[in-house]
Design goal:
The chain is α+β, with helices and mostly antiparallel strands. Helix content is about 35%, strand content about 20%. The chain has a 7-stranded mixed beta sheet with strand order 17-18-16-15-21-22-23. Strands 3-2-1-5-14-13 form a 6-stranded mixed beta sheet, sandwiched between helices. Helix 10 runs antiparallel to helix 12. The termini are far apart. The mean pLDDT is about 90. InterPro entries: ATPase_NBD, Carb_kinase_FGGY, Carb_kinase_FGGY_CS, FGGY_C, FGGY_N, Glycerol_kin.
Length: about 500
Amino acid sequence: MTGDGYVGAVDQGTTGTRFIVFDHDGSVVSSAYERHEQRYPEAGWVEHDPVEIWENTKTVITRALGRADVGPERLEAIGVTNQRETTVLWDAESGTPIYDAIVWQDRRTTDRIETLERNGSTETIREKTGLEPDAYFSATKAEWLLEEADPIKMERARPADVRDRAKAGEILFGTIDSWLIYNLTGEHVTDVTNASRTMLYNVHDLEWDDDLLAEFSIPEAILPDVRPSSDEATYGTTDPDGFLGAEVPVSGALGDQQAALFGQTCFDPGDAKNTYGTGSFFLMNTGEEAVESDHGLLTTIGYQRSGEDVQYALEGSIFATGAAIEWLEDVSLIDDPAETAELARSVDSTDGVYVVPAFTGLGAPHWDQRARGTIVGMTRGTRREHVVRATLESIAYQTRDVAEAMEADSGIEMTSLKVDGGAVKNNFLCQLQSDVIGSRIVRPVVDETTALGAAYAAGLAVGYWADLEALCSNWRVDREFEPEMDEAVADERHERWIQAVERSRDWARDDR
């Protein structure tokens, strides 16, 4: 363990970028946050400006250090965590993106996925990558950028020029972690967890897969070097002549959900966490075994430390949870997310109303790209309180869907679930979640576990923390929630939820 320095973490999420400074206890010393623009150029398309994200990253790093009165030379390492699957292509020489980043929520490549399914490629993709073929992942996004994008940043470049330059290694591909590490260090790398979300990486052989690269016409020359999540060799250092004015190692990176798994100290097989953000992501550590799912879950890489085997995880990806709360605000049913608990408590039930927030399709365990948001069960007596409560309940029901699939695949009965993310500050939701899944919900003191996981990975790599046991000693419980609802009532309401889900499915068709 080193002296009185700190470790910083860039947490680049779907709606904004945060930088948090942590101390040895894993406590937050200071933080800063900036939102970025959400762009929806066409129905089902979602884009971000990578340059705006990088500028915001510099801003929040500088602001957080200033608030703590911590000079950059006292940062012993920086870790990066990121919205996964979101895809960027940029010019290797200038560092300029050729197009906006295509966000994980984007559905523009749905037809391409359906072509893969008709061609019988589904099982091959599952076997190699552990993923369910879906527009969610990076492969079809990168393919679209190479084939279809009308570049908005490069001078008069045409799509054909982009592909030719990509083959020559003059265009680089990355998820947001790669984009940020490139700008921080000048190095083109990613970590195993983010690579495992591209649908181009073989999670068993631990390498980019030649067959998948050929399927999506992705030149190997554009791909980043894949490194451990906690890398003693480091990914590089910040430029002492750059915005920080100091040479700081960037030594850890994980996709946001794996970072939360690491930050929640889920180091043993069977340990599980659920993160409630824009979507919700339920991960269970399965150790050195890549468990194949028979129930609509993903097999993914949980993390890897330098010189050690990768640790795998089962994942249930839920596309819209926090996004469902944002929708309530968008349509003026609430003025602020903090209102939801009070409004939900003001009624005894949803009065038969169910909200299925399939705004960008359904993820695990249903996997329906053409499902769309649905409200069922409304009457003239339905009030906004019922819709708000039904929206909160949808978060809990989606989690139960995944929990049941997780137990079926793993053979492990879940007695407790660690939770994190912005929504878990809502005590009503935490209690509701406990009631619906029939398990204890455990909320930690530090709920910024995504950033904490990235900090832990970076700090372990440089010796700031000695070992995993030191991290476990930092983890502290804020509150636990035990089931209070009658099990038969919970089962009956969940069964009605499943019926509502069926009514949302296969809706977004060109002829409708």
